[in-house]
Write a structure and sequence with these properties.
This protein has 12 helices and 10 strands. It has helices at residues 9-22, 51-69, 84-97, 107-132, 147-162, 202-222, 241-247, 262-269, 272-279, 293-296, 301-307, 323-334; strands at 35-39, 73-77, 79-80, 142-143, 174-176, 181-183, 227-231, 254-259, 284-288, 313-318. The longest helix is centred in the middle third of the chain and has 26 residues, at 107-132. It is elongated, with a radius of gyration of 30 Å. It starts with 8 loop residues before the first helix and ends with a helix.
Length: 335
């Protein structure tokens, strides 16, 4: 047989890679061998693989194949990432080329176009990895928005939230005016430019006024015989001070107090005027008791443990125009 003068990858690589796949040489099942697992950093389905992916995946492949040669149970898990905001931009551009506006589509119609894009480009990426000779366990191929991964993300997120380890805060965000969504710092392209820096003082003045109003209510509560405990707003020994400061809700406008009976708690909550404050702009932002904390998560676990919160514990975030108006309603609730 005459050997070719030049190496022809088409005649060799496809043949042997298919042989590896047909014989399940990359398949991994748990057994008594030492495990060696690599989860591929999932490439985004926004496009196709580039040289950076090739370098990264080649290094992973070398490590996985070396582990197999050492007798380890090597498992290389392949997959792709949804990259939702970037993918949405790609889908919107494709629709625009077809004369279709995203705003003219229903949510379900747009999702269908998004999934079509995902299947098309996700398939290209996986084929590229095969052409590279990647020794992945293809039976374990995953996508970050498939049912299993989505369910796991929701479970972990809810678990962390219920433990008080993550919370929703008021903060500056990178707003995309075209996509009408917030972007992470990593998704923003920064550019230096000469501009003006504006200083706004009204928020500080507003917060100070709210603190004064909250203090008036706190001192009024302290003098009520029905109130057994009051935690002062704006003071660093207030149990919620650090958490409120991080949430930027204005620690100075937060009131925590305990009344003598659960019945009195219910009476306060049933006060029509007090509830109307919660429904009006600039009123009482939240008035909660312990049973509601399971759904609101408004008081972190460590604070609940510190206070020994029961059903007679109330907490208000107050941002009112006139403290006297709220005191009048509280007087009716305490009758």
């Amino acid at each position: 047989m005459e050997l070719a003068s030049k190496y022809d990858p088409q005649a060799v690589e496809s043949k042997w890679y298919q042989y590896w796949l047909d014989n399940k040489l990359f398949s991994s099942k748990p057994d008594g061998r030492e495990p060696y697992t690599v989860v591929i950093p999932p490439p985004n389905v926004t496009g196709v693989l580039h040289m950076g992916h090739m370098l990264n995946n080649t290094i992973q492949d070398i490590l996985v194949r070396r582990a197999r040669m050492e007798g380890k149970n090597a498992c290389w898990v392949p997959g792709t990432d949804h990259a939702s905001i970037a993918t949405e931009a790609k889908v919107v551009n494709r629709l625009a080329q077809q004369g279709i506006k995203k705003t003219d589509l229903t949510r379900e119609e747009f999702l269908k176009h998004a999934w079509d894009w995902t299947h098309e480009h996700g398939g290209i990426i996986l084929k590229q990895l095969r052409k590279l000779g990647a020794s992945c366990d293809w039976d374990r191929t995953a996508f970050t928005m498939d049912e299993t991964r989505s369910r796991a993300v929701i479970h972990v997120f809810c678990d962390l939230y219920q433990k008080g380890l993550i919370y929703r805060g008021v903060r500056m965000v990178n707003w995309d005016p075209k996509a009408q969504t917030a972007l992470s710092d990593e998704e923003v392209i920064y550019k230096d430019e000469h501009s003006k820096l504006y200083h706004l003082k009204y928020y500080v003045v507003e917060q100070e006024r709210q603190q004064e109003n909250a203090k008036k209510i706190a001192f009024w509560l302290k003098n009520r015989p029905e109130v057994t405990e009051v935690y002062y707003p704006g003071l660093e020994d207030h149990p919620g001070y650090e958490v409120n400061r991080k949430q930027a809700t204005g620690a100075g406008s937060m009131l925590s107090f305990r009344v003598d009976t659960v019945e009195r708690t219910r009476k306060i909550l049933e006060s029509v005027k007090l509830i109307s404050y919660a429904e009006s702009l600039g009123g009482v932002e939240s008035l909660i008791t312990y049973p509601m904390l399971q759904t609101h998560g408004d008081v972190p676990v460590e604070i609940r443990e510190h206070l020994g919160i029961t059903e007679d514990f109330l907490r208000m975030s107050v941002g009112i125009e006139n403290a006297e108006d709220l005191i009048k309603d509280l007087e009716q609730a305490f009758q």
